[in-house]
Structures are given as structure tokens and as C-alpha cells.
Amino acid sequence: MQSPPVVTRFAPSPTGYLHIGGARTALFNWLYARGRGGKFLLRIEDTDRARSTPEATEAILQGLRWLGLDWDGAPVSQFARAERHAEVARQMMTAGTAYPCYTTPAEIEAWRAEHPNRPFVSPWRDADPATRPDAPYAIRLRAPREGVTVIQDAVQGEVTFRNDQLDDMVLLRSDGTPTYMHAVVVDDHDMGITHIIRGDDHLTNAARQAQVYAANGWALPVFAHIPLIHGADGKKLSKRHGAVGLHEYAAMGYPAAAMRNYLARLGWSHGDDELFDDAQARAWFDLSGIGKAPARLDFKKLEHVSGHHVAAMSDAALLDELAGFLAATGQPPLTPQQLARLTPALAVLKQKSRTLPQLLEQGRFALIERPVQPDDKAAAALDTVSKGILGDLTAAMQNVIWARDDLEAIAQRIAESNGLGLGKIAAPVRAALAGRTSTPSIFDMMLALGRDETLARLADATA
User: Fold this and answer.
1) CA-to-CA distance for 374 and 383, rounded, in angstroms?
2) Which CATH number do you get for residue 411?
3) Cβ atoms within 10 A of the Cβ of 304, count?
4) Catalytic (active site) residue 239
């Protein structure tokens, strides 16, 4: 018999930005579904009305779009499905797998004070229906009291929970609102979710949710609880470790392709492969490759992965990434003139840059306009003697073929005629072309700027 198509989901709460751990969870679900021709669905768990905001929802959607994760269909609002959650709870009560509980919060608190470290046992679980008062009630799951609930987890292995340690959880509150634990199960069932891939902080929830599945006679999905991300010190990732929001990494100039590669390797492996593209990730990703130990965020590794992807990108893709980065960080877009000067330099710049800001810094010579304003160090390189040499160089380059070998030959001849090595005239040329003393090769800059712009900047420096 053919297996049902894979359906995964990402279900964030819209109470803030998209955490990097949530981004990795979304990526794992996306890779697993896309690699098997399945569906990747998005559910916004917005039942916390006090903290859930449209702005936070949009921030999450924007983060997923930036990361390059597309989802199938429209995002599902959990809050909008409250009546369906209530309907299922009432059906369970009719079937006897749930029951009304009239216990007040004060009574529950008093019971727990007398029975510390024990799950609450409602006195209404087996009460005679004739004794039920005409009062508001919660609906509780009639959970098994004996035996165990076993979760066959695709990552953690077999995990066993004693049923006498789990209480009859509330499905529907006395005000008619569903609880998160109940809503999640109903939503996952109705959405046809076959694989639930999420953080291992939800592992205990899986036992309670499995009981709701069983009470309704629904097939249990495959659970895969992945270890959380820790900082370099081995502690749970927090703001003290640096950036924890996905938007912060976008603002730091890591390309989305690099983040997909790096996040995929945080807790998952495919042999010794460290660097790979999306097609390879989709083909290779499997739950068996996820380890049980927490992954550690390593900025040095991220920079290495980022550098690989910057170097491997096509010029068009890189320019798209740059445009997105500038927009996200509130910087003006590149002008047609800047693009015309920067594009020829990309082949060189992307070999020397690990992030987009580094590439823009390396390519600054192509982005500035005449007259070039040298910084103090560069200005010091433009003394009277150096300006004279630049004048000779400008004259000699008027009719040269604008190719690297020819440019190098002219520069070498001018240097030798002044009794200098080529390196000695490079500093004033850098100052003239870029206003800096640390730049790409002077010949790479000349080729990117073109004849007219190069000669104009050299002439400006000698004026």
C-alpha cells in the first residue's frame, strides 16, 4: 500500500520576532516535506490574544520569506478555529472520553496544597451525572490512569510516560475557550499533518496530545523532537549569546542561502558534508540524520558557510541579495551608475567577502562618486612626488588597451622610470581611485571603473 503524502507544519506563536530556533524548525519541516514531494503548511497559533499581534505575525511571515521557505495554501489562524476545537471537546464528552468538571480554581489550588507533586484528580471524573450542578464547567480529558503512554519518537527513540503522572488535562475552559494542548491536536488532525517536527521542549506535550489522538480514534502522526540550539558556552541560546532573531542575521548581511545551509547543519548531518545547496539539502535531509545532543551556535562556522555561498552565487543572485540587504537595513538602493561600476568587480569581490557588508566595503571604490575624498591615511600617500607619478601614469594610460596585462605593464614601466617597485606606486593609486589605502587590487579597480572613470579619478588626485 502506498504511504500517504508527507504533510508537515510550522506553528509559531505571533508574540515577537522569528527566533533562530524557530527558523531552524521551519527549515527542517520544509526540507522534509519538499524532499518528498509533500506539503509544508503554516499555522499561526494566535490564541494568546493579549500578546498576539498582526505586526508579529507579519514579522514571522517576512522572516520565512527572507529565508526562502514557501508554504502551501494560506496560513491557518488557530484562534479562528476555536468553535471547531469546542465542537470536538463536546463530542468527546458525549462519547465518554471527556467529562465536565465543575471544580473551581480555589478548590484545585487547595487540593494541590494537600497533595504536592501529584497530578490533579478531579472529583467529577466518575461522578453520577445526576449530581452535576447547573453551573459553568470545564471539559477535561478522561485520560487513562494505569499503564503507560509510549511515544515512538523519530529522533529521541522510544519515550515512556507513566499515566498516573499525567492529569486529566482541560480541553475546554469554563468560559468556552479551548486550551492550547487540545487545539494543537485538533488542528494537526484536521490539517492532515503526518509528521510533527518540533523542539524537544515539547516532548512532554506529545504524551498528553497522544492521549487526545487516542480518545478520538485518530491516527497518530510521526513525532520528531529536535534538540534545542545552545550558545557556544553550552547553555540555552539567549540574547546574552548575541543575535537570536532571524532578522538580526539578515541585518548582519548573511545571505539567505548561507543561513539555510548553516541552520540545516545545526543538529543534522549528512556524513561529513558541511557545504551544500538547496537541491542537495532537500535530497539528503532525513530525520535519521538529526542528533540527540543540542547544537551549538558558532559564528565562525556561519561566516565560513556564508563566504562559500557569497563566492558561489551568480552576479544576478548576489545583486538581488544586496538589494534586499540595503532595503532591510534602511539604506538607499544602488544607482544605475553604481551598479555599472560594481557589477564588473563582483567576480573579485565575492572571493574576498564573507558577508554582504564586507562585499560593500570591499566594493566601496565602485560606489563612491567623484571627486573622491581620501581619508587621512590615503591623503598622506598623495604627496607632491606621488602626484607627479600619478600624472605620468595618467598620461601613459590615455591610449593603452584596457586589459589587465597592458595596465600592469604600463604601471610597471612608470614605477621603474621613477626608480620604484610597483608596490610603491600602488598606495597613491589606491588613494586616488578609492580614497583608502586598503582596497582590492588597483588593476581590478581600474577594470571595474573603466577607462574614463579611472583616468578622471587619477586626474582629480593630481590636481
Assistant:
1) 12
2) 1.10.10.350
3) 15
4) yes
Residue 284 lies in a domain: no
What is the total residue count of the chain? 463
Q: Which of 199, 226, 253 is the last residue of a domain?
A: 226
Q: Is 438 exposed, middle or buried (0-12, 13-18, 19+ CB in 10 A)?
A: exposed
CA distance 348 to 310: 11
**Strand ranges for 335-454 from DSSP E:** none
CA distance 341 to 355: 20
Query: Is 350 part of any known ligand binding site?
Result: no
pLDDT number for residue 49:
81
| 189 Cβ neighbours under 8 A, 6+ residues apart | 213, 216, 218
Domain count, the chain: 2
The range of the structural domain enclosing residue 159 comes to 80-226
Domain-ending residue, one of 207, 226, 245: 226
Q: What are the pLDDT digits (tens) for 378-437? A: 999 999 999 999 999 999 999 999 999 999 999 999 999 999 999 899 999 999 999 999
* pTM, rounded to two decimals: 0.92
The verdict on residue 299 lying in a domain is no
Q: What are phi and psi of 159, to 5 degrees?
A: -120, 125
d(CA 375, CA 285): 50
Phi, psi values for residue 8, rounded to 5°: -115, 170
How far is the C-alpha of 13 from the C-alpha of 79, rounded, in Å?
A: 11
**Start-end of H helices in 96-202:** 105-114, 180-190
Peptide bond into 100 cis (omega under 30): no
Is the residue at 144 inside a domain? yes
The reply to whether 174 falls in a domain is yes
Q: Which position among 39, 235, 236, 239 bears the catalytic label?
A: 239
CATH of the domain at 110: 3.40.50.620
Query: Can you say whether the dihedral through the CA atoms of 75, 77, 83, 87 is positive or negative?
Result: positive
Three-class DSSP category at 290: strand
Which of 243, 231, 202 lies closest to 20, judged by CA? Answer: 243
The radius of gyration of the chain's CA atoms, rounded to the nearest angstrom, is 31
Cell digits of residue 271: 556524513
